[in-house]
TrEMBL record:
Pfam family for this entry, one: DUF2141
Keywords, sorted A to Z: Signal
Keyword field contains Signal: yes
Secretion signal, residue range per the UniProt entry: 1-28
Taxonomic lineage from the root: Bacteria, Pseudomonadati, Pseudomonadota, Betaproteobacteria, Burkholderiales
Superkingdom: Bacteria
Protein name stated in the entry: DUF2141 domain-containing protein
InterPro entries given in the database record: DUF2141
The species this protein was found in: Duganella phyllosphaerae
Amino acid sequence: MSTAYHKPLFPRAMLWLAFALFAGSASAASVEVKVSGVAGGKGKINAAVCDKEHFLKDCAYSGSAPAQAGQTTVTIDNVPKGTWAVLVYQDENQNDKLDRNFIGVPKENYGFSRDARGKFGPPDFTDAAIEIGDDKIVVPVTLK
């Protein structure tokens, strides 16, 4: 009969779990959206980071900053790595929505990552798609 001492499995499992949780949190990045074409001092700049499934709908990550004439930066933290698209608009009246006219054309300035544009409406996700890794990424967007 062996009398060798065996370390309990539970503490080692807890160490592995802690490592996995820490490693998982390291795979999120900050997205720094540099927005140009901002109408001076009117409202705020709203930005969102969306996956393909939620593009133009309910984006998982968002942020805002007061509109500064020329260029405004919005930082969105903890975005997991993957393929995403960035949507931005200048919310001049600060009602937290992109105002549109009676036929649905935006009345406030807006833009997408990669300065993607659609022909008759918004661009496709693939036209605006960017890859986000583990490190901070700077995404330029020009409002139109």
